[in-house]
Structures are given as C-alpha cells and as structure tokens.
Amino acid sequence: MEIKSYLKEQRLLVEAAFDSYIPAATGDFAKHIEAMRYSLLAGGKRVRPILCIAAARAVGGNTIDDQNILPVACALECIHTYSLIHDDLPAMDNDALRRGKATNHVLYGEAGAILAGDGLLTWAFDLLCNPSHGNLDSEKKLAISHCIAHAAGSFGMVGGQALDIASENTRFPFETLQTIHRSKTGALITASVVSGAIAAGADREQSEALKQYGHQIGLAFQIVDDLLNATATTEQLGKAAGSDIELGKATYPAYFGIEETRKRALNAIEKAKTCLKDFDDKAQPLRLLADYIYTRSH
Amino acid sequence: MEIKSYLKEQRLLVEAAFDSYIPAATGDFAKHIEAMRYSLLAGGKRVRPILCIAAARAVGGNTIDDQNILPVACALECIHTYSLIHDDLPAMDNDALRRGKATNHVLYGEAGAILAGDGLLTWAFDLLCNPSHGNLDSEKKLAISHCIAHAAGSFGMVGGQALDIASENTRFPFETLQTIHRSKTGALITASVVSGAIAAGADREQSEALKQYGHQIGLAFQIVDDLLNATATTEQLGKAAGSDIELGKATYPAYFGIEETRKRALNAIEKAKTCLKDFDDKAQPLRLLADYIYTRSH
Questions:
Q1: What is the pLDDT of residue B233?
Q2: Taking CA atoms, which of A55, A253, A258, A295 is between 20 and 30 Å from B149?
Q3: Which residue is closest to B178 within chain A, CA to CA?
C-alpha cells in the first residue's frame, strides 16, 4: 500500500460524503451555510476523518459500512474546521491566510465567522446524534458523541486553546506545554481514532490500544506542527510561517531545538506503531498514517 | 399554584443542579471554566430548563426522576448562555451589560469569551450524551440530543442569529422577521419543551401538542422581548434598552406599533394554552408559564 494514493482515495471519500451530510447553501440561511461550507471545503488533509475510518477498518475491515462511519468522519471534520475558524479570528491568532486562502472572517466578517464556527460545531452533533444516519445502535452513537464532545470541549480542544491564548508571551514549565498540546490537538485526534473503534465494536483491549496509538500520533502531530511553523515558509504552509515566535508561543523547538524535537516526534511515532502490535494487516493504514505524520516534518 | 413561587422553586432546583453537572473552576483549565461559570451563574430566569422540566412533568408527573431531566435542563441553559455570550461580543451586538452585570468579554477578553461560549456549547452535548447521567435509555438520550442540536444550530438559533445580524439596517418583509424569531428564539424554546416530552416518554399526540405549545410560547416570548426592548428602561432590563432601534433591527413594534404587538403576544399565549386542552392538572405549570411570559410585557 502506498500512503499517498491511500490518503488521496480516503480524502476523496470524505469529501464526497460532505455532499450527503453537510447542508447545501440554499434557503433562508444560505449565506450562513455558505460561510460554513467555504471553510469546510477549503481543502485540508482530512486527517481526523481518515484516522476514524482507518481505526474502524483496523478492527472490522470491510464489514464496516460506510453509512455508519462517514457521518462520524464528517462530524470530526466539522469540529476541526470550526476550531480553525475561531482560532483565526482577530481576537485569537488573527490569521488572514489558511491553506493558502483567505480566512473565514476576512470573507464573511467577524460575526459571520463566529457563527459559521458555532454552526459547524453544532452541526457535528446534529450529524452524530441523528437517528436516521446509518444503522449503528443508539448506545454506540451515544458513546461516540460523548467521546467526541468531551475531547472537543473544555477539558480538550477548547480548554487547550484557552490555555494556549492565556500563555502567549509568558514563561511556563514544559508540563504546561504538554497539557496544551495534549488538549488542544491530541484530544480530538485520539477521539477520532477511538470513535472509529467504537463504531466498529472494538473490544476493551483493542480500544485501549487504539487510544494509546491516538495519544502518540496526536503528540507527534503537534510536535511536527511546531517544527513546520519554525522551519517551513509561508508558501509551504499555506498560512503565516513563524507566527508562533511572533505570538510569543512556547513550542517544542523553543524548548529543545530542532534536532531534539525531531527525535521526540520520531519516538512518538515508534510508540504509536508499537501500540498496534496485536493488530493484523487491517491496521496497515494506521501504521502508514503514523509514518506519514513524521515525514511531514521534512 | 402561584407562578412566582413555582418559578423561584424551579429556578433554585436548576441552579442547585449546576453543582452536579457543571465543572468546577479548578485544575489546568480553571480560568476558562471560571469564564463559563461566570455567565452561567450570572442569573437569568432559567426559562428553558423550567419549560423542559414542566413539559416532562406534564406527561409523567412525579414519576419523572430528577436525575433524568436535570442534565437536559442544565444543557439547555448552557446553550442559551453560550448564545448570549457570543451575541454580546463586540463583533455582534457589542453589549457591555447583561442582567445588570458586565458581559463575558468585558471581564475575560474577546478570545476568552468566544472560548467560554464554545466550551458551554460543547459541554451541553457532553452532558446530554453522557451515558453515566440518569437512566434514560440511549435511544431517548440520542433523540433529545438530536432535537436540541438541530434547534440550536444553523437551521435554528445560530442560523437565526446570522440572519438577524445580516438584516441590521436593511428593510425586509415581515416574513423574514418571522423566520428570524422562529429560528433565533423559538427553536430552542420549542426544543426545551419537546426534549422534556421525550424524556417523559410522551406519545405521538402529546409530543405534537407540546411542540405546538412550544412554537406559540416561543413566538410570544420573542414578541415580548421586542416590546420590552422598545418600552422598558435599561435599569428594568439589566441590559441596554432601545438597542434594537439603535442597531436598526426590525421588530414587531416597528411593524405593528405597541398595542397591536401586545395583542399578537396575547393571541399566541391563548393558542399555546389551547394546545394543552387534552392535558390534565399536571400541565398546570405550563399554562401558568404561558401567562407569565405575557405578563412580562407590562
């Protein structure tokens, strides 16, 4: 299996699912929904949805029905996209560029962008809790929704972003940086993997292994993001490079330098793959995804 | 039954439940959770939670376990509070005062307030989808979560707020005002009633009657809000009076004048009570709540 073609194929699967699971920009709320769709469809690697699908297939292989996993995958991308829209706001990171395109508030105004974010976050739960989508039993749907809500909220992504903003231009211990990374980025990545596992009916051992895999790749993902922000150009990133330094944000490279940071990313990737030791070939995409996260750092 | 003592008793019940269902401001995310709690605990009539509880008891009376309905009631108040925090932001209505107190962004900054809102919205679904709270079956919890997500989102509250903001200082037909009211305010009020009905295991006829009751009191509630904004003082409101005119917002009084607007509110209240004609004395609080909404206009 070649990771690039796998990623492209899965990305196209997720993007095709948006047609089924994301409202069209018509009717009374057309302009608002257009703002939501603009950011959702503005590209991106679709890492979280792909992790969710890959985790489900690592457990259940081809017995997993797309209709059961794609609404979850789309909901994860809605939540990720909303977080980017709100993070980019003038009151937060004040970014004008994202994935090489104008950020939401540049096009739709601050109020429009705040509401586009609110709309995407709420739509995620509309999707996850919709009894009409797929045929997972209610208990599983509820467990998935709870797992994602907890990871996306005040003890996960939102709390991490609050801590990140509050920590700008302050000196703080490395433990605080770990807390920020684990909550702001790691929690939703872990939930992406775990929600796929729940959908596939993973047993307790499989779930725990996939959760630990999620923790490790979440950590690696954030370390690599820090590295890219420090070393890549704005053109390569599609967003402002070096913005972490400008905003006075603590990062892995600021603590450890570039080389040691790379080693730590690689270490997390190796640990992630070790978590999959009891899985068979159906988990191969998860192994390749782990490697892929590290290769982004070069 | 006296409505004022009923409302006070129910309000205290809901506020006591916050201790069980809303996180304490401790730990890594203390400051962020403090911002969430500040607005949640800043007072308010707790109309949505009380409607939810009253609707459940209209169906099931005292057989309804508090443990099953209070998490839903608290989640509704979290969603309502988040919408106020985001509506008050400088990019939206730019209000410095709410319930006689400083608005969230005045105290916690714009970024802090955006994240406090995001946190409360997400916490609502964490609560609603938590398998550990109460003993409602998963199917009911999922139906309640979906009902509330749909009402709070892009086809309900968020969409209505987007339309409201977009319509400032423009002339638009009365139908658009109705759409704004129905979505921005009416949808979550209706969902409050319907979610109570679902929790209590209402049959199809009861659910439909309670839904129509919700529509009518939602309409009345918004008309009365328009009236109060036009006629009450800032001191009476605890927020800036006359702000609708200042922001160039269309309102019922702007279309119909004060007296005709009052008549329309009263008409909606009468229709709401008619929806309850097949309910027994257990629905008495819902009838009194309808009357109470109208008396706020004087």
A1: 63
A2: A55
A3: A28
What integer best gives the mean pLDDT of chain A? 93
The angle subtended at Cα A82 by Cα A79 and Cα A86, nearest 5°, is 140
Structural domain count, chain B: 1
Summarize pLDDT for A216-237 with one digit per residue, the tens. 999 999 999 989 888 876 566 6
Q: How far apart are CA A47 and CA A192, in angstroms?
A: 9
Tell me which residue in A119, A137, A143 faces B158 most closely, judged by beta carbons: A119
Which positions ≥6 away from B188 have C-beta within 8 Å?
B48, B76, B79, B80, B83, B148, B151, B152, B156, B157
CB B77 within 8 A of CB B46: yes
Which residues of B, range 114-133, sit inside 8 Å of A by Cβ?
A: 114-115, 117-119, 121-123, 125-126, 129-131
* Full domain range(s) for residue B210: 3-295
* Locus of tokens 């403090």: B34
Give me Rg for the CA atoms of chain B. 18
The CA angle A36-A42-A44, to the nearest 5 degrees, is 115
**B216 φ, ψ (degrees, to nearest 5):** -70, -45
| pLDDT at residue B142, rounded to an integer | 98
ipTM: 0.95
Question: A239 pLDDT band (50/70/90 cuts)?
Answer: low
How many inter-chain contacts (A to B, CB under 8 Å) are there?
Answer: 176
Of all residues in chain A, the one with the smallest CA distance to B117 is A118
Q: Which of A35, A111, A142 sits opposite B91 (nearest CB)?
A: A111
Question: Which helix or strand (DSSP H or E) is residue A294 part of?
Answer: helix A284-295
Which parts of chain B have pLDDT scores under 50? none
By C-alpha distance, the chain B residue nearest A92 is B111
